[in-house]
Design goal:
The complex is a heterodimer of chains A (362) and B (234). Helix content of chain A is 22%, strand content 37%. Chain A is α+β, with helices and mostly antiparallel strands. Chain A folds into two domains: 219 residues, 3-Layer(aba) Sandwich (Rossmann fold), CATH 3.40.50.300; 121 residues, OB fold (Dihydrolipoamide Acetyltransferase, E2P) (Beta Barrel). Chain A has a six-stranded mixed sheet, with helices on both faces. A five-stranded antiparallel sheet of chain A has the order 2-1-4-5-6, covered by helices on one side. The longest helix of chain A has 17 residues. With 234 residues, chain B is mostly helical. Chain B has one domain: MetI-like (MetI-like fold, Orthogonal Bundle). In chain B, helix 1 packs antiparallel against helix 7 and helix 5 packs antiparallel against helix 8. Classes of the chains: A alpha+beta (362), B mainly alpha (234). Chains A and B meet through helix 2 and strand 7 of A and helix 6 and helix 7 of B. Chain A: It holds the Pfam family ABC_tran.
């Protein structure tokens, strides 16, 4: 558990942020220049904020009032930088072992063999960083941070410097890391896709301030959070269970809001999935639509309608216990008399699987 | 080699090698420290330190030698203390030649090492700190290995300068054959006597050979080190 509150003045803006990161993956989301990197550098001890307090577990890392500033090498925070920062004069193996020699003696620590296998870097051990690809470097950097036996793993846009294919590859490793180690992770990103795939908790940063923080499902379904996330990326998350693989190639998923059919989804029956439904992929109807090609229609109740600055409006819906967001025009919202309490049908045009395994009690 | 050089010439060559080696070895640790301070630390008086370090480079060597004589001579404030408490006499001794050579070589050495330190990405040092290494360990395990080529270059430059140092040396420790007569002083002395050109020429050839040898050795070492630290891989 991480408890952080900081204030730090720059020439052109002031960062003033406070949030709590429970176990699991906490994503720090914000656009470039919103102050994310300042926050993580302060957390790692690479920057001394003007004021604030940072507590990790039962250790006070920084407290401006009590004049406590723990130097970076004592903080036990594994930092995975955007630019891997491997040591060029050391082999991959020596890089991986670098932090280990300073790690607390007697601590069990992570098992090197397991981490190497988890990250798929066994074949690279004797190479030097200069001979590695971007994705390989980033995996080694993650391994190095984990093996330093940290109490928290800090990742500052670890995928930003990689191309699409490499991103997917590393995300898979990150998911494994999240599910197979108990290490809490603070993940900095400005990609909604990464956040929805990895995070359990979301902290939205805007212009140096925390705009929202809480469970990722709640924030993704919050119309207020949409401007920060970007209209195109806005969309709620649903948890569903893989129920059946039908003969015609579709898979049935049972969500809190009802059954959904998707083109074949890999995985064993009973597997828990996280689905992402973009607000722009949800249409609303006041009666159950007849003669429509869309397969996925869920009964829903309007919770809130929020008229945007332009012609669009965002509608928050309750489907069972879960929340959905729909983006409609203001004209339609008026014509359908949408308002709190109105019973509607949500026609879902597209669903993507944001995460293929959410087990392990998260 | 003794067959080709007269005893006096041989003494001058070996004394020069001795002086240059000691001057390089003794000033290297301090050179690394000062270069690191100038490259990485912020402290009051930084530009003053920078100026003092570079002073021997811009002052006439004779002036440096004279200042050394005033300060480190047997009746000079530092020289007297050294003699009283350490039994160390510098003026008109080969040890004084080491000091003069070291001071003259120091700015060149510091410049080369400072450039190497500035080329090390501070982000790597920050990364090492987050992995649990304190400042000293960061320096020993990251900075130092990465600046080895620069240290080598600085050492060779310093060695060459120390070998060739003349003005400050002759002012501070004079030109006593067998005691303080280094190779350049010997060349100068031979050129002062009629018929000494042959002797001077032999020493000139030795000087060229030693300098070229040192240069080639340092280039080879730098290549080996660069390969070992992976700087050449891409």
């Amino acid at each position: 558990m991480l408890d952080l509150s900081l204030r730090h003045g720059f020439e052109d803006f002031t960062l003033e942020a406070a949030f709590t990161a429970p176990a699991g993956v906490t994503a720090l989301f914000g656009h470039s220049g919103s102050g994310k990197t300042t926050i993580v550098n302060a957390l790692a001890g690479l920057l001394r904020p003007d004021a604030g307090r940072i507590v990790l577990g039962d250790r006070v890392l920084f407290d401006s009032q009590a004049r406590v500033f723990m130097p970076p090498h004592k903080r036990r925070i594994g930092y995975v930088f955007q630019d891997a920062r491997l040591f060029p004069h050391l082999t991959v193996r020596q890089n991986l072992l670098y932090g280990r020699r300073f790690a607390a003696r007697g601590g069990a620590g992570a098992d090197m063999g397991r981490i190497v296998e988890l990250l798929g870097i066994g074949a690279l051990m004797e190479r030097r960083p200069g001979a590695l690809s971007g994705g390989e470097k980033q995996r080694v950097a993650m391994g190095r941070a984990i093996l330093s036996d940290p109490e928290l793993l800090l990742m500052d846009e670890p995928l930003a410097a990689l191309d699409g294919a490499r991103k997917g590859e590393i995300l898979t490793y990150l998911e494994r890391l999240r599910d197979e180690t108990a290490l809490p992770i603070l993940y900095v990103s400005h990609s909604v896709a990464e956040v929805t795939r990895l995070a359990t908790t979301l902290v939205l940063i805007e212009a140096g301030h925390v705009m929202r923080s809480g469970p990722v499902e709640a924030i993704m379904a919050d119309p207020d959070a949409v401007p920060a996330l970007g209209l195109r990326e806005a969309g709620a998350l649903l948890t569903a269970r893989l129920a059946a693989h039908d003969a015609d190639g579709l898979s049935r998923l049972d969500s809190e809001g009802g059954a959904l059919w998707l083109p074949h989804v890999e995985g064993p029956i009973g597997a828990a999935l996280r689905l992402r439904i973009l607000a722009q992929d949800v249409m609303l109807a006041v009666e159950r639509p007849q003669g429509i090609s869309a397969l996925n229609v869920l009964p829903a109740r309007v919770l809130e309608v929020r008229q945007g600055a332009g012609p669009g409006a965002l509608v928050q819906l309750a489907v069972g216990e879960a929340r959905l967001l729909a983006r409609v025009t203001g004209r339609s919202a008026k014509a359908l008399e949408l308002g709190p309490g109105r019973e509607v049908y949500a026609v879902i045009k597209a669903v993507s699987v944001a995460r293929d395994s959410i087990g392990e009690g998260r | 080699m003794t067959e080709y050089l007269s005893p006096q010439e041989w003494q001058a060559v070996s004394l020069s090698l001795q002086v240059a080696l000691w001057a390089t070895l003794l000033s290297l640790p301090l050179g690394i420290l000062v270069a690191h301070a100038l490259a990485r630390w912020q402290f009051p008086g930084k530009s003053l330190l920078n100026g003092v370090v570079h002073l021997p480079l811009i002052l006439p060597p004779v002036v440096t030698g004279y200042l050394l004589l005033i300060g480190f001579g047997r009746r000079g404030p530092i020289g007297a203390l050294l003699e009283e408490y350490c039994g160390l006499v510098l003026a008109f001794r080969w040890t004084g030649a080491v000091l003069a050579a070291a001071i003259m070589a120091f700015p060149l050495m510091v410049r080369a090492i400072r450039l190497a330190i500035e080329a090390v990405d501070p982000k790597l040092e920050a990364a090492a700190a987050t992995l649990g290494a304190n400042r000293l360990r960061v320096f020993a395990t990251i900075t130092l290995p990465l600046i080895l080529p620069g240290i080598l270059a600085g050492a060779v430059l310093g060695f060459a300068k120390a070998m060739g140092e003349f003005g400050a040396t002759i002012t501070f420790v004079s030109n006593i054959p067998g005691q303080t007569q280094t190779l350049p002083s010997a060349v100068y002395a031979f050129l002062q006597v009629p018929g000494g050109e042959g002797q001077a020429m032999r020493l000139v050839i030795v000087a060229i050979a030693i300098s070229m040898g040192a240069l080639l050795l340092s280039e080879w070492l730098a290549r080996v080190v660069a390969r070992r630290i992976g700087a050449k891989e891409g």
